Amino acid sequence: MALRPLHDRVIIKREAEETTSAGGIVLPGSATEKPSRGEVIAVGNGKLLDNGNTAPMAVKVGDTVLFGKYSGTEVTSGDDKLIVMREDEIMAIIEE
Q1: Superfamily classification of domain 9-15+34-94
Q2: I need a surface site. Which of 14, 40, 46, 83 has the fewest CB within 10 A?
Q3: How many Å apart are CA 81 and CA 77, to the nearest integer?
Q4: Closest Cα partner for 19 from 10, 6, 32?
Q5: Which of 91, 86, 68 is nearest to 6 (CA)?
Q6: Of residues 19 and 70, which shows the higher confidence score?
Q7: Which of 48, 63, 50 is nearest to 10 (CA)?
Q8: How do beta strands 64-67 and 54-55 pair?
Q9: pLDDT, greater one: 64 or 24
Q10: What is the pLDDT of residues 26-53, one digit of tens each?
Q11: Are 94 and 66 spatial neighbours (Cβ–Cβ below 8 Å)?
Q12: 72 within 8 A of 12, measured Cβ to Cβ
């Protein structure tokens, strides 16, 4: 199943969860915190403005972004767990 976001929505693949603590202890799945950063894998056309124009998206495919803990909606596509969210739920683009 292929997903194509509409308007100002983006699809993000969350980074892998840490399964080992800094001290080397293996953490069970219930104890790991989901990372709040990931890679943008698809973007919509942009936000539809009141005047009928479309505002361009600030993020692009391949960007690594930071988002809120409860942002977006989790969906499953094949074996991948993805997040669909509006662009304004993204807090920052991580530039490394």
Answers
A1: GroES chaperonin (2.30.33.40)
A2: 46
A3: 6
A4: 32
A5: 86
A6: 70
A7: 63
A8: unpaired
A9: 64
A10: 666 555 556 689 999 999 999 989 998 9
A11: yes
A12: yes
